Amino acid sequence: MDNVTHIALGGVLAYACFGKKIGRFAWLAGGIAATIPDLDVFIKTGDVIVDRLMHRHFSHSLLVIPVIALVAAAVLMFFQRARDNYKTVFLAATVGVATHGLLDAFTSYGTLLFWPFNYTRVAWDTIAVIDPIFTLIVLVGLIVATRKRSEKVARVAVALAVAYLGLGFVQHERAAAAQRTLAESRGHIMERSRVTPQLGSILVWRGMYEFEGKLYADGIRTPFLGSTVARPSSGPVQRLAVEDLRPLPVDDRTELAFERFAWFTDGWIARSPGRPEVIGDMRYSSELEGVEPLWGLALENTIKPRWTSNTDRIRGDGIARLWKQMVSNEGFEPLPRTRPNAGEATAAPQ
Hints:
It is built from ten helices and ten strands. It is α+β, with helices and mostly antiparallel strands. The protein folds into two domains: 3-168, no CATH class; 186-334, no CATH class.
């Protein structure tokens, strides 16, 4: 999530817990601590690919919460009241930073919550990395709570935020059910699948699944009122594995970069249809049902891969498209009826 949301959530939760005892230092400690993990974007290793993969790495682990809380609390020790209540300030910072990794885990990017014991990138796929409704809930709650000096207001804001995250789970399950319907209508058995929210809301989703070595993407809209609708796949792409690179003139460094990228993407990788030299992260595309990735590794004419991105696709008219998808069913269609023999695999359509 963005830093404003992290600061607001960490601050309002800390204020809800400790505002009565230490006043503004509660939300300051919680807010400062909640934004520190994202300083990992300033890590520079000399390898652009590694730098990208370091985001949401060890700094987001549950194990480092006390360390980050200690740093955040130390920042406030210049103030006498903070020094007089250093234990409570530390607890407020602990509460604040604890929200960071957990909130990021609700998104689709992947977060190393359990580093160094487990290197799985946790992603619950229930809220987008930018969600204005969630941000407004915690930000307005923090502002009103601190102005009124009311822990009760802060607690209401926290309760609403938790309820919204719960609604994200409900919406995710609706989208996942629609994805199963789409796959069954094609006679496909999903070997694995992901359903991820698109920027801005929990109304529009990108469904990805694998069948017989191919990746399929569908756009899905789950309005709060009304039936789920879909934008069917524009066509499959062949999933790539590290074995597919071995016939190419690549060295160990390239193979290592590919393996790291495969770990980062959870294996959702394929060649970009428009740029075959790019091995793309198929979790993200400018089109809901599209298979043109937003970023990936470019092999080009050398054996040294480089990071490449097309994020400009989501700017300009891309923002307008996102808004249109959130407020309208235009371009979507009702879910198909499943086949009588749904669940029996058939050949993938050409």
